[in-house]
Structures are given as structure tokens and as C-alpha cells.
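Before a colleague's protein record goes any further, I have to sign it off. What it holds is a sequence and that sequence's fold in C-alpha cell form. My question to you is simply how this chain folds and whether the C-alpha cells agree. Thanks in advance; the entry in question is below:
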Amino acid sequence: MKHGFSSLLTILLVGAVVLPASVLAGPKPAPVPHAKTENEVILKENSAQEANLKIETVTEVVASTTEPLNGKISFDENYTSRISSPVLGRAIKVQAQPGDRVKAGQALLTIDSPDLGSAVADYRKASADLDLKRKALERSKLLLDGGVIAHKEYESAQSDMAQSQAESTRTKSRLHNLGIDHAASNESFTLKAPMAGMVVDRQINVGNEVRPDAPNPLFIITNPDHLWAIIDLPERDLNKVSIGQTLSIKVDAYPDDEFPGKVQSIGTMLEPVSRRVQVRCSVESKGKLRPEMYAKVTPLNLAQQKVIRIPNSALITEGLYSYVFVESSHGHIHKRRVTLDLQGRDYATIKDGLKAGERVVTKGAILINSELAADK
């Protein structure tokens, strides 16, 4: 009996030793949930609400001197040629289309021109008359030396020679300006590209009449890598823009891209009705910009001072104050008051309340604010 009791006691002691520490310690206490603050929204993992938000990192940009100004992309006239016909005639062959890249001297248009035939004929007649007058002058010189004619007749032959030379020079220069060889035997004139570039406009078809005094050019050739941005600068902002100042240019076609530019010239006279002055700027198109695009042009601070800029969609306005939602950690978003420096149509710069590197809700801020207001 005593032996059996001892065996039972031994088994109980061994069992106590092998029991897990968790059992001996009792049930584990539940984790304490994160205390939700007054201006905080907590998003559930992989929730639909989280999927509809866009959170971006705050970055610094060079401060602007004015609000974005209205502008337009245009041809750089230093790299643009508007081509008209120097002769009267009719188009018989078009050799270039809009979008074609052409080289200097490449044929653009062939014109059947009676004026060309007249110019060649005038040159040939002037050349023949010059030869005749030169021979007459040589004879007069011989006769004068032999005492056969008076000096007056020799002077008359010199005058005729000078007139023939002038006419020959005029007709030869006319052919040279047209780029025509005096040996041409037909009336076909070839209009050629004066510079290399891209054909961006064509205003001629086969059979159309062409005239030197036409109001519109037949072709426009430009280098698409060189463009201007034209700004209509309000009078009140005239002291905030200077020649050589850097610019930031944005267009609707590429909302996420910024194109650098520089002020090249400022107009000397205000437009009397709109009270604006035209400012011409060079722009790096990166192969994307096109003439006649509308643009938003922002003059940048000359000292290259940097500020924090966020899209207006990130701002919540309540009364006189502005707020943003800042992500403190994954899923935890806090409402924070900020002080604005300058607010434009699309973006606002922050004077106080945000630091570079913080993450801000840029899409869906209104929905989060509504949820926060409902919880109060």
C-alpha cells in the first residue's frame, strides 16, 4: 500500500514538471488595442477604403514668384521658315506632305510658270545684246585710234555697252534668286526647302494657282525641338519676371510632366485693352510639346528658394483654416492643420505644418474627413 502511494506521488510530480509554462502561467492576456486619437482615422488592412486613397510623399520644389500664368506654345521663329512662291504659275506636282522631315534644298513643289520662261528669255536676250555691244565698242575703239570717227561716237558705244552690262547683270541676278540655271529650257520651277526641318503645314494642291503676293505661305517648315512659350503677363506681375529667369511649364496633355524654360524677352509696350505685356520664353519640349498647345507657365524664384508643394486635392478647408491628412504609420492617418503660402488652380505651397518626406493623402481626403466627422 505504501509502495503504491509512493508511485502515484512520483507520477504526479513528473507530470507537473513536463507541463508547459503557458499552462502553469494561466491564460495569456489579450493585446491592448492602439488608442485612437481624436483626429485619427484607422484603415483596415486591404479594405476598399484604403484602395480608394492615394498617398504620396511630400517633396520640395523651387518657389514661384507668381501664380501660374496663361501661355501658349508656338513656333520658335529662329528655326521656322514660311515658304511662298517667288513666281506666278500653277502647281503641277506636290513633293512634300505635313509631317515629312526635309533637308535643305529638297524639292517641295513643282510649278509650271510662264514667268520663269520669260526670265530665262530675258537673260538670253540680254547676253546676246551684251556680246553685240562689246563687239561694237571694240570696233569703235579701232576706228577712233585710226581717226575715222569722232570721240563722241566712241563715248556713245561705251554708254551702250554699260547699259547692256547692267541689263545682263539684272537678268542673271533674277535667275540666281530663283535658283535657276540660265541653260534651263522649260518653264518648270521647283520650290525648294531653304532649311532642314519638319513640314508642319501645307496650303497647296495640284492645279492651284500660286502667286508671289499670296497672303498665306505654301509651306511652313520648323525644327520641332525648338519651341517658344508665349505669356500674356499682367501688368501687376511685371516686376516679378525678368530676362533669364527660369520657368516651370505644364500642359494638359501631360499633367505629370514639367517642362523647363527660360525668359528670353519681355515686351516693351502694354496691350492697351487687356493691360498685359507679351513675354517670350524658350522651352525644352522633350519631343512632347506641340505648337498652339495651351500651357500654365510658372516663373520660379531667382534665388532658387525651395518650398513644399501639394495638390489642392489634398487640402480640406474648414472656415479660415486648411488641413491635410498625414500618414503616421501604415493604416493610421492623422488630420493636421497647415498654413498656406500660395494657392493656384492646381497646387498650393505650404508655409508651415508639413515637412519634406512626410506622406500625405492626395486623393480621397474629403471621404476621410467625412468619416472623421461622423465618428465625432
Notes: Confidence is low (pLDDT under 50) at residues 1-5, 8-26.
